[in-house]
Amino acid sequence: MAKDDTKNVVQAVGKSLKTSVQKANLVLRMIRGKKAEHALNLLIFSRRRISEQVSKILKSAISNAENNHQLDIDKLYVKEASAGKSMVLKRFRPRARGRSGKILKPFSRVRILVEEKEEKLEKSESKKNTVNNKKGSK
Q1: Cα-trace Rg, the chain
Q2: What are φ and ψ of residue 119, in 5° steps?
Q3: CA torsion, points 28, 30, 35, 37, in degrees to nearest 10?
């Protein structure tokens, strides 16, 4: 069963984004679990600087799903969106009394997984059928 689950999952990775992991996670939290089209709209109208790069990664995942795995783009959902640490640039700034202050400039690694899911119309249809059956039995 695990092989069937992984067939519908496609990933895209951005390796060295100039932002901290916390700031990237603020943007990624918005799109987790959303439909791919809706997630793109959220990223376009987000005011955060990193959302532009995240939208490029999401577009890459969508195109990977369409071209490499022949998945339907209308049924794609963001299954997972995570950020991890990449490299850190270390800089030093002179401070008072001959000391130096350390400045860390972090980079992030963003991974987005997109999954093809069926719409949840079956559940709503089954609820309608049970409601109709109850009304008919009275």
Answers
A1: 22
A2: -65, 155
A3: -80
